[in-house]
Write a structure and sequence with these properties.
CATH superfamily of the largest domain: Glutaredoxin
CATH topology of the largest domain: Glutaredoxin
Order of helices and strands: EHEEHEEHHHH
Number of strands: 5
Strand content: 5-15%
CATH class of the largest domain: Alpha Beta
Strand order of the largest sheet: 3-2-1-4-5
């Protein structure tokens, strides 16, 4: 498997999950500041992921997963003994997916206008920072009563946060 990543992005989370799960993955950095995005070996990244953003996980059979939420679940499921994801079909798994979705849609996306799109102006950055603070306050309140998002054990959701 090969993980395509860029520094300073949420593509770090699949790397953490793979390490915690004891999985061996190849890493290839993507320059997301250039158009077209190029990998460190010179490949056009949009040929790998037409969406044009990281992370992307190229599987040994040629399939490519392109969303962080899907990738961290896939990696966790490859190593069930690591307990990085609850078993499929359980209420715990759906709580796990709740957290992954919240982090993806309500937290990670809020960073984009602030960090990656200065052309949107100072107001957009200020709005994004205020929303991020609200989301982190919610996360902090939840974590005030437990060490990890799902309770007593580190999970792929913690890596994704």
């Amino acid at each position: 498997m090969k993980l395509y990543y860029a520094r300073g992005t949420c593509s770090l989370s699949p790397h953490i999950v793979a390490r915690e799960a004891g999985l061996s993955i190849e890493l290839e950095r993507v320059d997301i500041l250039t158009k077209p995005h190029r990998t460190e070996t010179g490949a056009d990244f949009t040929a790998i992921n037409p969406k044009g953003y990281v992370p992307a996980l190229s599987l040994d059979d040629g399939e490519v997963l392109t969303e962080g939420v899907a990738i961290v679940q896939f990696l966790a499921d490859l190593s069930p003994q690591s307990a990085l994801a609850p078993a499929a079909g359980t209420i715990e798994r759906y709580r796990f997916q709740e957290w992954l979705t919240f982090i993806s849609s309500e937290l990670h996306k809020m960073f984009s206008p602030w960090l990656f799109h200065p052309e949107h102006g100072e107001l957009a950055g200020n709005v994004a920072r205020a929303k991020i603070a609200e989301r982190f306050a919610f996360l902090d309140a939840h974590l005030a009563t437990r060490p990890y998002l799902l309770g007593e054990r580190f999970s792929a959701a913690d890596a994704y946060a």
